Amino acid sequence: MKEDIAEIKEKLAAIESLLQRLPEIQAAVFFQMLDEYEAAKLQGRRSRDLWEIPNPQER
C-alpha cells in the first residue's frame, strides 16, 4: 500500500512538473513556428505549404 502511494506521488509530481512547464513549451513552439512562417513568407509560400491544418471537426 505504501509503495502504491509512493508511486502515485511520483507520477503526480511528474505531471505537475509538465503542467508547470507547459506555458514555456507553448511559447517556444509558437516562436519556432513564427520563424518558420516568416521564412516561408519571404519565399512566397503559405502556411498551408508548411503545415497540415485540419478542419475543426477533425481536431
What does this structure look like?
It is a single chain. The protein is 76% helix and 0% strand. By secondary structure, it is mainly alpha-helical. The longest helix has 41 residues. The chain is elongated.
Alpha-beta content class? mainly alpha
Terminal Cα separation, in Å? Answer: 40 Å
Let me know the number of strands. 0
Radius of gyration: 19 Å
Concise account of the structure shown:
The protein is an all-alpha fold and 59 residues long. It has helices spanning 2-42, 47-50.
Provide the fold topology.
Blueprint: H1 2-42, H2 47-50
Could you name the key traits of this structure?
mainly alpha, 2 helices, 59 residues
